[in-house]
Write a structure and sequence with these properties.
The structure holds 2 protein chains of 2 kinds.
Chain A (H helix, E strand, L loop, with lengths): L6 E3 L14 E4 L4 H14 L5 H22 L5 E4 L5 E3 L23 E2 L2 H27 L4 H8 L10 H5 L3 H25 L7 H24 L1 H6 L2 H21 L3 E2 L8 H4 L6 H5 L4
Antiparallel strand pairs in A: 2-3, 5-6
Helix pairs in contact in A: 1-2, 3-6, 3-9, 4-6, 7-9
Chain B lengths: L8 E3 L10 H10 L3 H30 L9 H35 L8 H27 L27 H29 L12 H33 L12 H35 L6 H14 L15 H13 L1 H15 L8 H24 L1 H7 L3 H31 L5 H27 L16 H31 L29 E3 L5 H6 L11
Helix pairs in contact in B: 2-3, 2-4, 2-15, 3-4, 3-5, 3-7, 3-13, 4-5, 5-6, 6-7, 6-8, 7-10, 7-11, 7-13, 8-10, 11-13, 11-14, 13-14, 14-15
The chains are: A mainly alpha, B mainly alpha.
Chain lengths: 291, 562
């Protein structure tokens, strides 16, 4: 039976507002909060007017506090307010021109299964590690150094490195490596998290979306914003190598995500029991249904 | 737990009849601890101050309407903008959102009152007396000490202007002490909202089923705890400086004027979110009902609200880019400020997605809500502009900033409040507000708003400083300022129409019944106005839209929610 979605019942646990056969017990009206507030205000006001005002305030604070305490100690004062219950039907005022047939799939939101957000985070971590390979390859090929790409990334965080030469960036700098590690780790994690959050929108082909679509979107975004984020990186970045690194990141990320087990979304609950129990139907077919 | 037989019904319980002598009525309102009455008191009190603050704004705009104007003296002008800002933030916006929270939070979670009803009354009265104290400065500051009148140091009262040597007499003390008192009331109300939400929800109302309005008020309550405290500390330090000769903000004696700025803005910027979060809350309730769809992305909306709460605590120094914080400080606050646009953007997109494909009803609450969406978006975009430190260096303390934050506060918060008035007035009073007059109000206010605040950006871009008393004709700001002032007249007319509608509808408005909007949350399941106890028997809910479930037993939400 559906019609008990909202029922009215007697309150069981509230100390303050007990419902009885005679009515509902509510706190009695009281003037003491007002008196106390006035007293405190007058105490303060005396600082800008006259000490007599403060003295009056002190008296009111004392009286208000005592009055308030007596309201609640040893027992909170209540008054029973009689209730009259009249039940009227709840109806929607809006007419329905055509009532759609309601079946088990009505209002279903798809997908029924997807990857968890953590799948994206794991993908981001492993993809971030994989991305180091083409980035370091770029450093070796162009500058014969293992450290150029790392230092270039780190330079975005060091204002003093803005004018440094390529020779400087090709040398090993512990601080630069540490900064690059921090920036790269954080970015990889966040990109993975973002990817994980977006996965329910396209759960079927993670390798395609992560490996090709996402890198081009990300590269486009960075291309427009890099001049603001890191001018030095913007001046010296090699975009083809960058895109290659992104694709490496995305392919590995998508591969790792694809290895993860899908989880069921809340919509799975709306399926008939027989489908949920695996006795009939198939999820693939259901996924293609329109909501 | 017992269930009454006719469960497809609402409480239609008549409030106890009382003696209605004038004295009895006054006594009833002075001594009430009922959350609904206290909510109404908060709202009424805020409306009175809204009119006062509006009159001050109008006088400011008349003064600036034409070049070389001397409608008021420079001294009076300084007092006007100080009192206008202080009044609108502390004695209009805060009380009005607390008023709606007081009224709605318990009733939307199926409770009979706030957790601490007497504290609730105390919080209201101390806030009310704070407002009285502030305005008594017009009499008291000069009347008893002959050294100035109302506060004149701006609503953010930067040090060292507030030092005794620059601000003799007691005008600044009135400001400090009034803010201090109102802070006590704010903390009390926030404590009540948080405790009520966490401890007094009706059976079945898990956090995941709570109306988004209540979620947001929970976040807002938490923000109030964190932000009012430094403000109160700063007021106490300033009072110690002024009365006992301490040197917290005395730059000549080793104190720091920057310290005040940090204390004030670590309150001041989250305060914007304290005020705008309830505006979001109203949108979350109104937009779905007038789109005839459930809110899109409930979990994302909750997450975004909580994110906004946290991130808003890390953006305060974008008000201070020009003080020389250094590259690291500037960079952090630029990024933190930009990051907050992400959860805010999520909300905007979710409201649009809620409207998308819905059967929109363009009643007055929805009109104000749609205007809110558009205007708040623009306000956010100018906020992003100002978040860029180099841009802010150019525009800091210009009318561009004034236009930006008025776009937030008027275009965002006030429009949402108007929507809330039209939406919940039938519940509070039992009668509908006039739709026809409401549309007059809407269009007058929209036209006035855009005339004023769209055009206000331009003199700011041209270099017109905020708080300027007057300007020379050759600056080229005259026509723009005249348009801005004309817009204020439209807004003033809109407010008068609104007040007329409030009063008129109280007497002759159409009877509302319990659920005039065909809505889905619990406040619409009891009579209008609700009885003292809200619900004769407390409801049990099984989804986020309990009234939808009652109206559509063939297709309840509970089948689709976790």
């Amino acid at each position: 039976m559906r019609n008990d979605e909202m029922t009215y019942g007697e309150e069981s646990g509230s100390r303050a507002h007990v419902h009885s056969a005679e009515g509902v017990a509510l706190p009695v009206p009281t003037v003491w909060p007002l008196v106390l507030a006035l007293g405190v205000s007058l105490v303060i006001s005396g600082m800008v007017t006259h000490w007599v005002i403060s003295a009056l305030g002190v008296i009111l604070v004392g009286r208000g506090a005592v009055g308030w305490f007596l309201e609640v100690l040893p027992h909170e004062h209540h008054a029973t307010v009689p209730t009259v219950v009249e039940v009227i039907p709840v109806v929607s005022t809006r007419g329905i021109r055509a009532h759609p047939a309601v079946d088990e799939k009505h209002r279903k939101l798809l997908p029924i299964e997807t990857f968890s957000v953590w799948a994206g985070v794991k993908g981001g971590i492993v993809g971030g590690i994989a991305m180091i390979v083409p980035a370091t390859g770029f450093s070796l090929v162009r500058f014969h150094s293992l450290w150029y790409a790392a230092n270039l990334l780190a330079a975005g965080g060091f204002v003093s490195w803005a004018g440094e030469s390529n020779e400087f960036l090709s040398q090993f700098h512990p601080l630069g490596l540490l900064a690059a590690f921090g920036i790269h780790a954080l970015t990889s994690l966040l990109v993975g998290l973002l990817y994980g959050a977006m996965l329910p929108m396209f759960p079927r082909v993670p390798i395609l979306t992560a490996g090709f679509i996402a890198p081009f979107l990300w590269t486009g975004l960075l291309h427009s914003a890099l001049a603001v984020i890191s001018p030095i990186l913007n001046d010296r970045i090699d975009w083809p190598w960058f895109v290659a690194s992104q694709i490496a990141f995305g392919l590995v990320c998508g591969f790792v995500v694809n290895l993860q087990v899908k989880v069921r979304t809340p919509q799975f609950r709306a399926l008939p029991f027989s489908v949920r129990a695996g006795l009939e139907g198939d999820l693939q077919e259901t996924e293609s249904e329109e909501p | 737990m017992s269930t009454i037989p006719a469960i497809k019904g609402v409480d239609e319980t008549q409030a106890t009849q009382r003696a209605r002598t004038p004295g009895g009525v006054i006594h009833e309102w002075l001594t009430t601890v009922d959350h609904k009455k206290i909510g109404i008191l908060y709202i009424t009190y805020a409306l009175i101050f809204l009119v006062i603050g509006g009159v001050e704004a109008t006088m400011i705009r008349i003064q600036l309407a034409v070049p070389d104007n001397h409608f008021v003296s420079p001294q009076v002008y300084n007092r006007l903008f100080t009192m206008h800002g202080t009044t609108m933030i502390f004695f209009v916006a805060m009380p009005i959102v607390f008023g709606f929270g007081n009224y709605l939070v318990p009733i939307m979670i199926g409770a009979r009152d706030m957790a601490f009803p007497r504290l609730n009354a105390f919080s209201f009265w101390i806030s009310a007396f704070a407002g009285v104290l502030l305005y008594f400065s017009y009499l008291g500051a000069s009347g008893l000490y002959a050294a100035g009148s109302a506060p004149d140091v701006g609503w953010f009262a930067y040090a060292p202007l507030t030092a005794k040597v620059f601000s003799p007499g007691h005008s600044t003390d009135y400001w400090t002490l009034a803010i201090l008192l109102s802070g006590v009331g704010s903390i009390g109300t926030a404590l009540n909202i948080v405790t009520t939400t966490l401890c007094m929800r009706c059976p079945g109302m898990k956090l995941s089923r709570m109306p988004l309005l209540v979620w947001i008020y929970l976040v807002m309550g938490g923000l109030v705890f964190v932000t009012i405290s430094p403000l109160t500390a700063a007021q106490i330090m300033l009072t110690l400086d002024r009365y006992l000769g301490s040197h917290f903000f005395d730059t000549q004696a080793g104190g720091s004027a920057l310290l005040w700025m940090h204390f004030f803005w670590i309150f001041g910027h989250p305060e914007v979110y304290v005020l705008v979060l309830p505006a979001f809350a109203f949108m979350n309730e109104i937009v779905p009902v007038f789109s005839r769809k459930a809110i899109f992305g409930y979990p994302a909306m909750v997450a975004a609200s909580v994110c906004i709460g946290f991130i808003s605590l890390s953006v305060w120094a974008h008000h201070m880019f020009t003080v020389g914080m250094g590259a690291a400080g500037n960079t952090f606050f630029v990024f933190a400020t930009m990051v907050i646009s992400v959860p805010t953007g999520i909300k905007i997109f979710n409201w649009l997605a809620t409207m998308w494909g819905g059967r929109l009803i363009f009643a007055t609450p929805m009109l104000f809500s749609i205007a809110f969406l558009f205007q708040f978006l623009i306000a956010g975009l100018t906020g992003i502009i100002l978040a860029v430190a180099p841009f802010d260096w150019q525009l800091h303390n210009t009318y561009f900033v004034v236009a930006h934050f008025h776009y937030v506060i008027v275009g965002g918060i006030l429009f949402a409040l108007f929507a809330a008035f039209y939406y919940w007035y039938p519940k509070i009073v039992g009668r509908m507000m006039s739709e026809k007059i409401g549309k007059w109000h809407f269009w007058l206010f929209v036209i006035g708003f855009h005339l004023t605040f769209d055009f206000m950006h331009i003199p700011g871009l041209l270099g017109m400083p905020r708080q300027i008393y007057t300007y020379e004709a050759d600056r080229g700001w005259g026509t723009l300022n005249l348009i801005v002032t004309i817009g204020v007249l439209f807004q003033a007319a809109g407010v008068l129409v609104f007040v007329y509608n409030l009063v008129r509808s109280y007497y002759v408005g159409k009877m509302a019944g319990p659920d005039p909007w065909d809505a889905w949350t619990l406040e619409w399941s009891t009579s209008s106005p609700p009885p003292d106890y809200n619900f004769a028997v407390l409801p049990t809910v099984k989804s986020r839209r309990p009234l939808w479930d009652l109206k559509h037993p063939e297709d309840p939400d509970s089948d689709y929610e976790l």
